[in-house]
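Page 42, continued from yesterday. The earlier attempt failed because a stray header line got pasted into the input along with the sequence. Redoing it now with the clean sequence only.
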Amino acid sequence: METSKDLVAASATPLVLAILAEGDSYGYAIIKRVAELSGGHLQWTDGMLYPVLHRLERQGYIASKWRAADTGRRRKYYRITREGRAQLAVQRKQWEVVDDTLRGIWMKVRTV
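This time it went through. C-alpha coordinates are written below.
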Protein backbone atom coordinates (compact mmCIF):
# COMPACT_ATOMS: atom_id res chain seq x y z
CA MET A 1 0.00 0.00 0.00
CA GLU A 2 1.41 3.34 -1.02
CA THR A 3 0.68 6.33 1.22
CA SER A 4 -0.40 9.48 -0.61
CA LYS A 5 2.12 12.30 -0.94
CA ASP A 6 -0.32 14.68 0.78
CA LEU A 7 -0.56 12.44 3.85
CA VAL A 8 3.20 11.88 3.96
CA ALA A 9 3.80 15.64 3.74
CA ALA A 10 1.22 16.41 6.42
CA SER A 11 2.74 13.92 8.84
CA ALA A 12 6.38 14.91 8.26
CA THR A 13 6.61 17.66 10.88
CA PRO A 14 5.10 15.72 13.79
CA LEU A 15 7.09 12.62 12.88
CA VAL A 16 10.43 14.44 12.77
CA LEU A 17 9.71 16.33 15.98
CA ALA A 18 8.59 13.14 17.76
CA ILE A 19 11.68 11.23 16.63
CA LEU A 20 13.94 14.06 17.83
CA ALA A 21 12.02 14.12 21.13
CA GLU A 22 13.37 10.58 21.60
CA GLY A 23 16.91 11.97 21.31
CA ASP A 24 19.32 13.76 18.98
CA SER A 25 19.63 12.16 15.57
CA TYR A 26 20.91 12.63 12.02
CA GLY A 27 19.29 12.36 8.60
CA TYR A 28 19.88 8.73 7.71
CA ALA A 29 18.90 7.56 11.20
CA ILE A 30 15.68 9.61 11.02
CA ILE A 31 14.80 8.00 7.68
CA LYS A 32 15.44 4.53 9.14
CA ARG A 33 13.35 5.34 12.25
CA VAL A 34 10.39 6.46 10.11
CA ALA A 35 10.53 3.20 8.16
CA GLU A 36 10.75 1.23 11.41
CA LEU A 37 7.85 3.07 13.08
CA SER A 38 5.63 2.65 10.02
CA GLY A 39 6.41 -1.01 9.54
CA GLY A 40 8.03 -0.12 6.22
CA HIS A 41 4.96 1.64 4.83
CA LEU A 42 6.61 5.07 4.83
CA GLN A 43 9.84 5.16 2.83
CA TRP A 44 11.31 8.64 3.07
CA THR A 45 14.21 9.83 0.94
CA ASP A 46 16.96 12.39 1.53
CA GLY A 47 15.19 14.66 -0.93
CA MET A 48 12.06 14.58 1.16
CA LEU A 49 13.65 14.80 4.64
CA TYR A 50 16.23 17.57 4.30
CA PRO A 51 13.80 20.31 3.18
CA VAL A 52 11.69 19.43 6.24
CA LEU A 53 14.75 19.61 8.52
CA HIS A 54 15.83 22.94 7.03
CA ARG A 55 12.31 24.39 7.42
CA LEU A 56 12.03 23.20 11.03
CA GLU A 57 15.45 24.70 11.78
CA ARG A 58 14.44 28.06 10.23
CA GLN A 59 11.28 27.99 12.36
CA GLY A 60 13.37 27.39 15.50
CA TYR A 61 11.80 23.99 16.25
CA ILE A 62 15.09 22.12 15.85
CA ALA A 63 18.79 23.01 16.00
CA SER A 64 21.75 21.28 14.40
CA LYS A 65 25.40 20.72 15.15
CA TRP A 66 28.20 18.85 13.38
CA ARG A 67 29.67 16.03 15.44
CA ALA A 68 31.99 13.11 14.80
CA ALA A 69 30.23 9.74 14.77
CA ASP A 70 31.72 6.59 16.31
CA THR A 71 33.29 5.87 12.93
CA GLY A 72 35.04 9.25 12.96
CA ARG A 73 32.86 10.49 10.12
CA ARG A 74 31.28 13.90 10.69
CA ARG A 75 27.50 14.00 10.80
CA LYS A 76 25.02 16.81 11.28
CA TYR A 77 22.95 15.97 14.34
CA TYR A 78 19.59 17.54 14.99
CA ARG A 79 17.94 18.17 18.35
CA ILE A 80 14.49 19.41 19.23
CA THR A 81 14.29 22.84 20.89
CA ARG A 82 11.89 24.01 23.60
CA GLU A 83 9.82 25.68 20.84
CA GLY A 84 9.87 22.39 18.94
CA ARG A 85 8.52 20.50 21.95
CA ALA A 86 5.70 23.03 22.25
CA GLN A 87 4.95 22.65 18.54
CA LEU A 88 5.01 18.86 18.89
CA ALA A 89 2.37 19.12 21.64
CA VAL A 90 0.18 21.26 19.36
CA GLN A 91 0.63 18.89 16.42
CA ARG A 92 -0.15 15.89 18.62
CA LYS A 93 -3.45 17.40 19.76
CA GLN A 94 -4.37 18.20 16.14
CA TRP A 95 -3.60 14.66 14.97
CA GLU A 96 -5.56 13.20 17.90
CA VAL A 97 -8.61 15.18 16.76
CA VAL A 98 -8.19 13.85 13.21
CA ASP A 99 -7.66 10.29 14.49
CA ASP A 100 -10.70 10.45 16.80
CA THR A 101 -12.85 11.84 14.01
CA LEU A 102 -11.85 9.15 11.52
CA ARG A 103 -12.22 6.35 14.07
CA GLY A 104 -15.67 7.67 14.97
CA ILE A 105 -16.96 7.68 11.42
CA TRP A 106 -15.31 4.38 10.51
CA MET A 107 -16.88 2.65 13.52
CA LYS A 108 -20.30 3.86 12.33
CA VAL A 109 -19.61 2.76 8.76
CA ARG A 110 -18.66 -0.74 9.94
CA THR A 111 -21.95 -1.18 11.81
CA VAL A 112 -24.17 -0.01 8.94
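Notes: The longest helix spans residues 82-111.
Reminder to self: strip header lines before submitting.
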